[in-house]
Every structure is written in structure tokens, then in C-alpha cells.
Task: inverse folding
């Protein structure tokens, strides 16, 4: 009887989790996809020559909602939900890992401890290929069939035969680790010190006893400061993740290109692509090189596109931090 009750308990809360996950993904996937496309959009400051030697033009996307309308106009509803499958899989994998590590007592109850931060960084590093596939699924101009063939569209032959090549993408792993360390280790410690100085006074032990308005103001200010540091790392990581690895010592680059063209690929947009990708220029060779080239070719503003999206994410993280620390 106890076993049956336990199974019913997990089944009930499992169904609630799936329903809530579906609702969240329905709302967040189009928004996240639009932010990814805006940041991946290559919009050089000066006139550029395309592969045929003529002057190329880049679509003008004035706002976030203009991007949403453009995606829907060119690719339809399916374009708005590109990246849904890898996003839902990553959420379930992370949730399963957290539950497993908690049950095995490998993950501390408090989130911002050295052990928990280390586990978080390791998990995100292991899931690096998933982030690459998700970003490419969102930004690709091709239709995705929704099965294993999608990997043939998103990954080069080198990356399919040697998945570890994704970890060797110049600067990608460094950018990922730098982002995770800043987000999960360094900046939260700075926040903790600021909050302790602001709120811990003689006779007051808990943050909950302080003014809610004061607490909100401090969290918003900290979130804006974190955005200044985190947003460029997110943009650089995104640009590096959608840059394909086409050359490996045991593969001939010419045969790779031929095998790519042999596969029938259908464009999602009939007359134009949603965004302009940086495919005809020399690839980035590292974290610093990527940042320098973005500034030189597109200006400082390219590193802070959709900065408010990072701020909103950080505010949600701050509420999570306040609950579990």
C-alpha cells in the first residue's frame, strides 16, 4: 500500500511538472528564440561584399517585437518554436540530474556553496553540445524535420563523427566556463557581501525583516550591474556556438562540403532569411578575438543586444537565490 501511494504521489507531481513545463515553454521559447536571433544577427557597420562580389545588405530589425513579427512572417509558427525540443530535453536532463544528486547527497541544500557551484559548472560544461545544437536549431535558415536527420542539418560531418570536436571549438568552452563562473560563483559572492553590508545590522539576522521596497531596489541595481558583465559573454558564446567546425585532420574539407551539398535541405523562408549569419567571413579564433571582431565590425552595441532579457533572467535567479540561501 505504501509503495502504491508513493507511485501515485510521484505520478501526480510528475504530471503537474509536465503541464507547467509545457505552459512555460509555450511562452518562453518564442521569446528566447527571438533574443537568440537578434544576438546572432550579423549587422556590419559598413558596406560588405557578399560571396559574388556584390554589395550585400543586412535586414534591419529595429526592435524585439519586430523580430517576432519577422520570424512569424517568414517561417510561420514553426519558426517561432525552433529550439523547442533541445530546450525541453535540457530542462528535463538538468532536473533529473539535480534530483539524482540531491538524493545521493552530492548536491548541498544551499545553492550558493562551493560544492553546489562546482556541480552546476560541471553540469553546464557537460551539456555544452546541447547548447550548441539549441542555438543552431534556432538560427538555422533551413527547415528541421524534427527527427535524427535534424543533426545532419545542424552539425558538420566532423562534428557528427567526433562529437568532442564541439568542445574544441576555439574559445567556446572557455566562454562557457567564464560565463558560468561569473554567474554562479563570483557575482553571487559579491551580491552576498553587498546584501550583508546593506541589511545585516545588530539585532537583525534575516533579510526577510528588511523593507521589501529597499530589497527590490537593491536586487534591480545588482541585476543591472551583472548585465554589464554577463551580456557580452552570452553574445560571444552564442556567436562561437553557431560557428561550424568543418576541418579535422582525418577529414578532407572538400569532401565534407560535397557531402553537405548532397543532402536535400529546404529553406524555412521562401524569399529571404530571418537573419544574416556571418558565414562568408573568416571565422572567430577565440574568445577575445570574437569580442574584438564584433566590436570592430558591428560596434559595441552588438555585445549588448537584448540586454534586458539577461536582466529579467537575473531577477528570476535572484529570487531563487533569496529563497535557497
Result:
Amino acid at each position: 500500500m505504501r509503495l502504491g501511494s508513493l507511485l501515485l504521489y510521484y505520478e501526480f507531481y510528475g504530471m503537474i511538472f509536465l503541464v507547467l513545463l509545457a505552459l512555460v515553454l509555450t511562452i518562453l521559447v518564442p521569446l528566447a528564440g527571438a533574443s537568440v536571433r537578434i544576438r546572432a544577427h550579423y549587422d556590419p557597420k559598413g558596406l560588405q561584399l557578399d560571396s559574388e562580389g556584390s554589395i550585400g545588405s543586412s535586414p534591419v530589425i529595429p526592435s524585439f517585437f519586430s523580430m517576432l513579427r519577422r520570424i512569424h512572417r517568414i517561417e510561420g509558427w514553426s519558426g517561432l518554436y525552433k529550439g523547442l525540443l533541445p530546450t525541453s530535453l535540457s530542462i528535463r536532463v538538468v532536473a533529473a540530474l539535480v534530483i539524482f544528486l540531491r538524493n545521493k547527497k552530492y548536491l548541498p541544500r544551499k545553492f550558493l556553496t562551493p560544492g553546489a557551484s562546482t556541480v552546476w559548472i560541471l553540469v553546464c560544461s557537460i551539456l555544452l553540445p546541447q547548447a550548441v545544437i539549441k542555438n543552431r536549431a534556432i538560427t538555422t535558415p533551413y527547415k528541421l524535420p524534427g527527427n535524427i536527420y535534424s543533426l545532419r542539418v545542424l552539425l558538420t560531418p566532423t562534428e557528427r563523427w567526433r562529437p568532442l570536436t564541439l568542445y574544441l571549438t576555439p574559445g567556446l568552452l572557455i566562454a562557457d566556463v567564464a560565463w558560468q563562473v561569473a554567474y554562479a560563483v563570483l557575482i553571487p559572492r559579491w551580491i552576498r557581501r553587498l546584501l550583508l553590508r546593506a541589511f545585516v545590522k545588530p539585532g537583525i539576522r534575516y533579510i526577510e525583516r528588511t523593507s521589501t521596497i529597499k530589497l527590490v531596489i537593491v536586487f534591480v541595481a545588482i541585476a543591472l550591474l551583472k548585465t554589464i558583465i554577463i551580456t557580452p559573454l552570452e553574445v560571444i558564446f552564442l556567436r562561437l556556438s553557431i560557428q561550424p567546425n568543418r576541418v579535422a585532420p582525418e577529414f578532407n574539407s572538400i569532401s565534407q562540403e560535397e557531402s553537405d551539398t548532397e543532402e536535400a535541405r529546404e529553406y524555412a523562408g521562401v524569399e529571404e532569411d530571418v537573419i544574416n549569419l556571418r558565414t562568408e567571413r573568416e571565422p572567430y579564433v577565440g574568445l577575445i578575438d570574437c569580442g574584438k571582431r564584433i566590436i570592430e565590425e558591428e560596434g559595441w552595441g552588438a555585445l549588448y543586444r537584448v540586454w534586458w532579457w539577461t536582466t529579467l533572467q537575473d531577477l528570476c535567479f535572484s529570487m531563487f537565490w533569496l529563497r535557497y540561501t
User: Anything to note?
Assistant: The chain has twelve helices and two strands. Confidence is low (pLDDT under 50) at residues 252-258. The longest strand covers residues 48-49.
